[in-house]
Design goal:
Number of strands: 7
Strand order of the largest sheet: 4-3-7-6-5
Oligomer: single chain
Largest sheet: 5 strands, antiparallel
Number of helices: 4
Strand content: 25-35%
Shape: elongated
Order of helices and strands: EEHEEHHEEEH
Helix content: 40-55%
Radius of gyration: 33 Å
Length: 192
Protein backbone atom coordinates (compact mmCIF):
# COMPACT_ATOMS: atom_id res chain seq x y z
CA UNK A 1 0.00 0.00 0.00
CA UNK A 2 1.12 3.53 -0.58
CA UNK A 3 -0.02 7.09 -0.13
CA UNK A 4 0.94 10.15 -2.12
CA UNK A 5 0.38 13.38 -0.24
CA UNK A 6 -3.00 14.81 -1.11
CA UNK A 7 -4.11 11.63 -2.93
CA UNK A 8 -6.27 8.65 -1.99
CA UNK A 9 -4.62 5.49 -0.66
CA UNK A 10 -3.22 3.28 -3.42
CA UNK A 11 -2.36 -0.37 -3.81
CA UNK A 12 0.90 -0.99 -5.62
CA UNK A 13 1.62 -4.23 -7.46
CA UNK A 14 5.32 -4.80 -8.23
CA UNK A 15 7.06 -7.63 -10.06
CA UNK A 16 10.82 -8.15 -10.16
CA UNK A 17 12.12 -8.40 -13.72
CA UNK A 18 15.49 -8.54 -15.43
CA UNK A 19 17.33 -5.25 -15.14
CA UNK A 20 16.89 -2.94 -18.07
CA UNK A 21 17.14 0.68 -19.13
CA UNK A 22 14.44 2.92 -20.54
CA UNK A 23 15.36 6.45 -21.76
CA UNK A 24 18.38 6.47 -19.48
CA UNK A 25 16.49 5.16 -16.46
CA UNK A 26 17.67 1.81 -15.04
CA UNK A 27 14.98 -0.46 -13.60
CA UNK A 28 14.74 -3.94 -12.08
CA UNK A 29 11.02 -4.09 -11.27
CA UNK A 30 7.76 -3.23 -12.90
CA UNK A 31 4.99 -1.68 -10.77
CA UNK A 32 1.39 -0.63 -11.24
CA UNK A 33 -0.54 1.53 -8.80
CA UNK A 34 -4.31 1.66 -8.46
CA UNK A 35 -6.42 3.74 -6.11
CA UNK A 36 -7.94 1.43 -3.52
CA UNK A 37 -11.42 2.91 -4.04
CA UNK A 38 -11.24 1.95 -7.74
CA UNK A 39 -10.24 -1.62 -6.88
CA UNK A 40 -13.01 -1.83 -4.28
CA UNK A 41 -15.63 -0.61 -6.78
CA UNK A 42 -14.37 -3.08 -9.37
CA UNK A 43 -14.49 -6.03 -6.98
CA UNK A 44 -17.70 -5.06 -5.17
CA UNK A 45 -20.40 -7.70 -5.61
CA UNK A 46 -23.83 -6.71 -4.23
CA UNK A 47 -25.21 -10.27 -4.18
CA UNK A 48 -26.06 -10.02 -0.50
CA UNK A 49 -26.70 -6.27 -0.50
CA UNK A 50 -25.25 -4.44 2.45
CA UNK A 51 -24.92 -7.64 4.47
CA UNK A 52 -21.68 -8.99 3.01
CA UNK A 53 -18.30 -7.74 4.24
CA UNK A 54 -15.40 -8.15 1.84
CA UNK A 55 -11.67 -7.58 2.16
CA UNK A 56 -8.52 -8.07 0.18
CA UNK A 57 -5.83 -9.33 2.53
CA UNK A 58 -2.21 -10.34 2.41
CA UNK A 59 -1.11 -13.87 3.40
CA UNK A 60 -0.09 -12.60 6.86
CA UNK A 61 -3.70 -11.51 7.49
CA UNK A 62 -3.17 -7.77 7.07
CA UNK A 63 -6.12 -6.11 5.33
CA UNK A 64 -5.04 -4.30 2.18
CA UNK A 65 -8.44 -3.11 0.97
CA UNK A 66 -11.81 -2.99 2.66
CA UNK A 67 -14.55 -3.15 0.05
CA UNK A 68 -17.72 -1.03 0.20
CA UNK A 69 -20.46 -1.50 2.80
CA UNK A 70 -18.39 -3.22 5.49
CA UNK A 71 -19.81 -3.48 8.99
CA UNK A 72 -16.42 -4.42 10.43
CA UNK A 73 -13.29 -2.27 10.50
CA UNK A 74 -10.54 -4.87 10.40
CA UNK A 75 -6.81 -4.26 10.09
CA UNK A 76 -5.74 -7.90 10.47
CA UNK A 77 -8.12 -10.82 9.90
CA UNK A 78 -6.18 -13.13 12.21
CA UNK A 79 -6.35 -10.70 15.16
CA UNK A 80 -10.00 -10.00 14.40
CA UNK A 81 -10.91 -13.70 14.54
CA UNK A 82 -8.96 -14.14 17.76
CA UNK A 83 -10.68 -11.18 19.47
CA UNK A 84 -14.07 -12.27 18.09
CA UNK A 85 -13.77 -15.53 20.01
CA UNK A 86 -13.41 -17.94 17.10
CA UNK A 87 -12.10 -21.23 18.51
CA UNK A 88 -8.37 -21.83 18.19
CA UNK A 89 -8.55 -24.92 15.96
CA UNK A 90 -10.74 -23.18 13.39
CA UNK A 91 -8.62 -20.01 13.60
CA UNK A 92 -5.42 -21.96 12.96
CA UNK A 93 -6.98 -23.68 9.92
CA UNK A 94 -8.11 -20.33 8.51
CA UNK A 95 -4.69 -18.76 9.14
CA UNK A 96 -2.83 -21.65 7.48
CA UNK A 97 -5.23 -21.63 4.51
CA UNK A 98 -4.75 -17.89 4.05
CA UNK A 99 -0.95 -18.18 4.34
CA UNK A 100 -1.02 -21.05 1.81
CA UNK A 101 -3.40 -19.12 -0.49
CA UNK A 102 -6.04 -21.90 -0.30
CA UNK A 103 -9.77 -21.60 -1.01
CA UNK A 104 -12.33 -22.60 1.61
CA UNK A 105 -15.46 -21.57 3.47
CA UNK A 106 -15.78 -21.77 7.25
CA UNK A 107 -18.72 -21.02 9.50
CA UNK A 108 -17.73 -18.74 12.39
CA UNK A 109 -19.67 -17.01 15.17
CA UNK A 110 -18.91 -13.34 15.75
CA UNK A 111 -20.85 -11.23 18.25
CA UNK A 112 -23.46 -14.02 18.59
CA UNK A 113 -24.11 -14.03 14.84
CA UNK A 114 -23.15 -16.94 12.60
CA UNK A 115 -21.20 -16.00 9.47
CA UNK A 116 -19.79 -17.79 6.46
CA UNK A 117 -16.14 -16.78 6.08
CA UNK A 118 -15.14 -17.49 2.48
CA UNK A 119 -11.63 -16.88 1.23
CA UNK A 120 -9.90 -17.48 -2.06
CA UNK A 121 -6.65 -16.31 -3.65
CA UNK A 122 -6.52 -13.59 -6.26
CA UNK A 123 -4.44 -15.14 -9.00
CA UNK A 124 -1.01 -13.69 -9.58
CA UNK A 125 -1.25 -11.12 -6.80
CA UNK A 126 -0.35 -13.10 -3.68
CA UNK A 127 -3.44 -11.76 -1.93
CA UNK A 128 -6.77 -13.20 -0.82
CA UNK A 129 -10.34 -12.06 -1.30
CA UNK A 130 -12.18 -12.66 1.98
CA UNK A 131 -15.93 -12.39 2.38
CA UNK A 132 -17.83 -12.46 5.67
CA UNK A 133 -21.59 -12.96 5.15
CA UNK A 134 -24.26 -13.73 7.78
CA UNK A 135 -25.52 -17.32 7.52
CA UNK A 136 -29.16 -16.24 7.69
CA UNK A 137 -28.67 -13.90 4.70
CA UNK A 138 -27.17 -16.70 2.59
CA UNK A 139 -29.81 -19.17 3.76
CA UNK A 140 -32.66 -16.72 3.14
CA UNK A 141 -31.63 -16.58 -0.51
CA UNK A 142 -31.55 -20.36 -0.68
CA UNK A 143 -34.87 -20.54 1.19
CA UNK A 144 -36.43 -18.17 -1.36
CA UNK A 145 -35.28 -20.45 -4.19
CA UNK A 146 -36.61 -23.47 -2.30
CA UNK A 147 -40.00 -21.81 -1.67
CA UNK A 148 -40.26 -20.78 -5.34
CA UNK A 149 -39.43 -24.34 -6.45
CA UNK A 150 -41.94 -25.90 -4.05
CA UNK A 151 -44.64 -23.42 -5.12
CA UNK A 152 -44.01 -24.12 -8.80
CA UNK A 153 -44.08 -27.89 -8.29
CA UNK A 154 -47.29 -27.60 -6.24
CA UNK A 155 -48.97 -25.69 -9.06
CA UNK A 156 -47.77 -28.26 -11.62
CA UNK A 157 -49.07 -31.16 -9.50
CA UNK A 158 -52.44 -29.45 -8.91
CA UNK A 159 -52.77 -28.84 -12.67
CA UNK A 160 -51.94 -32.49 -13.36
CA UNK A 161 -54.49 -33.71 -10.80
CA UNK A 162 -57.15 -31.40 -12.26
CA UNK A 163 -56.30 -32.62 -15.78
CA UNK A 164 -56.52 -36.29 -14.79
CA UNK A 165 -59.77 -35.60 -12.91
CA UNK A 166 -61.25 -33.86 -15.96
CA UNK A 167 -60.21 -36.73 -18.26
CA UNK A 168 -61.69 -39.32 -15.87
CA UNK A 169 -64.88 -37.28 -15.50
CA UNK A 170 -65.25 -37.00 -19.28
CA UNK A 171 -64.59 -40.72 -19.84
CA UNK A 172 -66.94 -41.76 -17.04
CA UNK A 173 -69.65 -39.38 -18.27
CA UNK A 174 -69.47 -40.96 -21.75
CA UNK A 175 -69.46 -44.46 -20.25
CA UNK A 176 -72.46 -43.71 -18.02
CA UNK A 177 -74.29 -42.10 -20.95
CA UNK A 178 -73.58 -45.16 -23.10
CA UNK A 179 -74.75 -47.50 -20.30
CA UNK A 180 -77.89 -45.38 -19.83
CA UNK A 181 -78.71 -45.73 -23.56
CA UNK A 182 -78.17 -49.50 -23.39
CA UNK A 183 -80.52 -49.71 -20.38
CA UNK A 184 -83.06 -47.52 -22.14
CA UNK A 185 -82.99 -49.81 -25.20
CA UNK A 186 -83.31 -52.86 -22.99
CA UNK A 187 -86.27 -51.34 -21.12
CA UNK A 188 -87.87 -50.47 -24.43
CA UNK A 189 -87.43 -54.03 -25.70
CA UNK A 190 -88.91 -55.55 -22.54
CA UNK A 191 -91.80 -53.15 -22.56
CA UNK A 192 -92.94 -54.28 -26.03
Amino acid sequence: NGVITGQDEMMIFAVKIDEGTYQGFTYSALAFAYEQDDIARYLYNPVYGLESNSFIIYPDGVVGITLENNNFHIRNINSFLEHAGVDEEKREKIESDIEGLCTDTQQVTIEQTDYYLHYEPIEGMGTMLVSLTPVDVVNSTLNNVQIATISFMTIVIICMVLGVTFVLYTVMKKYISKQAKILEKRDLMYSL
